[in-house]
Amino acid sequence: MVYGAHAIGGVINIIIKRPTERPETTLHVESGSLNTQRAQFLTRGMAGRTGYVISGGWLDSAGYDPVPANSEDRTEYTIPRDANEDMLRLRLSPDVGEGRLLLDFSRFGDERGEGERIQDPRGVYRSFDTQQMNLSYDRSVRGTDWSLKVYDIGEDYFWNRERLRRGTYTRYEVEVDRTERGGMLQASRRLGERGRVTGGVDYKLGKVDGADNYKEGPDAGLQVINQGKQRIIGLFAQYEVPLARGRGQVVVGGRYDWANVYDGHFVDGTGFLPNGPLPGGRWPDSDWSAFSPKLGLLYHATPRTDLRFNIGQAFRAPILDDLFRSGILRGRYYQSNPDLQPETVWTYEAGVEHRPNPKTTLRLTGYWSDADDLFYAILVDPDFDPRPLYERRNVAEVRIRGLEGEVEHRCSPTWSAFANVVWNKSTIEQFERLSPDDPDLAGKELEFAPRWKVNAGLRYRGEDGWRGQIAGRFVDDEFANPDNTAKIDRYFVLDLTAGRQLRNGWELALEVRNLLDQRLVEGDYYELIGGT
């Protein structure tokens, strides 16, 4: 409830290192195959009454050519896909007396080649420049714990795109500014032996402002404009009730969300796609609301066995790019869909954790989700030029169910073993065709959702400073398009890491992914290879 309307599949708890009383600095340097180098650093300490953590990193890789030799996508212009990254982050925690204040600033730059160069010296590439600011303040006042969080995120996206179709060369630049800012105010109070109640409000404002600027070719000087805004307001409350004799707790909660999209605007100066239906290429405004309940139970059945049950509903409004922006994503051409409606998911989950002895932990979890109006890629024109045209639409009903099992065992003071097995089946139970030409997806499985995934391995950590791990990963067959006519074959890979702690805080390490150096296909028919 407290994590927002978009936390449909769960949340990730990110734990960041805190300042230390004495200054401390770490440096991590890597070099590997494909002319790849990476460097990372972190320094932390105190400057007067202010704690600080400064971290950064840099990556440069010549990349590799992932297009299979027999693929129709391979041409004389195919080149390796290189990558360049840089990151800097500053986290400050000044002493403000009562309460805790945190200030967090970060910047991340990412430039990646797309594996094709026709005339432009740099070829086709994308770049992301993301800046983020977070402020949080926590304080307890008369038994109530207050928490205030404010954030501002901006992303400058650039795509240098060139293509050659039937002897005609075209180059254009995609520039998109995305911003998201908002905040949350939360209060939590313990009610003696009766548990804890938590409630609050959050607000988010998002904006996308994009343009495709044609530089060379028949459409030189023309523009495609995509714009839109979205705001979401949420109210939430949660009550945690402890069970008698410390046997667990029950969590009951609810969340109300109101979402509004407005100022949608699409104008295609090239005439490639139709403009918005209102004057000036605008789209009609839309708003939605939903209430999402939740019930959870944690029960300590025995000192060694815990049982978990969760039932809840989640709501997610469409994102601005799906509503108002047309363009290429993951090799597909998508047209915007301003008629897209929110998706809702009911999820049922049950799990058990058992510790038969101090060295072994066993976990088993089963889940079942029924999604209404799930966002999904639908092929609307297979003969669209230059590539098939897709659109994000709502699928009437989707069912997702699965089992996940885990085992961890400490074989000795230095050796441990682990294994994780996931079985998942995701099917479209009901699909409404909007036209006779639409594919009938009822009964089809979701694309890129393999039935089985297995991870297993051994870890070693010795008192002499040596450490290592060898792990195997198996991924089952998966469908590569919505109508299940294309498939990616299953694969198995081995990964190896080894290292030793040296004097004065230095460590020497080796990492090999895909140890057997197999040529594999993952995602949209791109090959993976091994490397260090």
Q: In angstroms, what separates the terminal alpha carbons? A: 42 Å
CATH level 4 superfamily of the domain at 341-532: TonB-dependent receptor, beta-barrel domain
Structural class of the helices, strands and pairings?
mainly beta
Helix content: under 10%
Radius of gyration: 26 Å
Number of discrete helical segments:
1
The CATH architecture of the domain at 341-532 is: Beta Barrel
> How much β-strand is present in the residues?
over 45%
CATH class descriptor of the domain at 341-532:
Mainly Beta
The succession of helices and strands, N to C, reads: EEEEEEEEEEEEEHEEEEEEEEEEEEEE
CATH topology of the domain at 341-532: Maltoporin, Chain A
The biggest beta sheet is recorded as: 23 strands, mixed
| Gross geometry | globular
Question: Unreliable segments (pLDDT under 50, ≥5 consecutive)?
Answer: 525-532
Please, what is the average pLDDT?
A: 89
Number of strands: 27
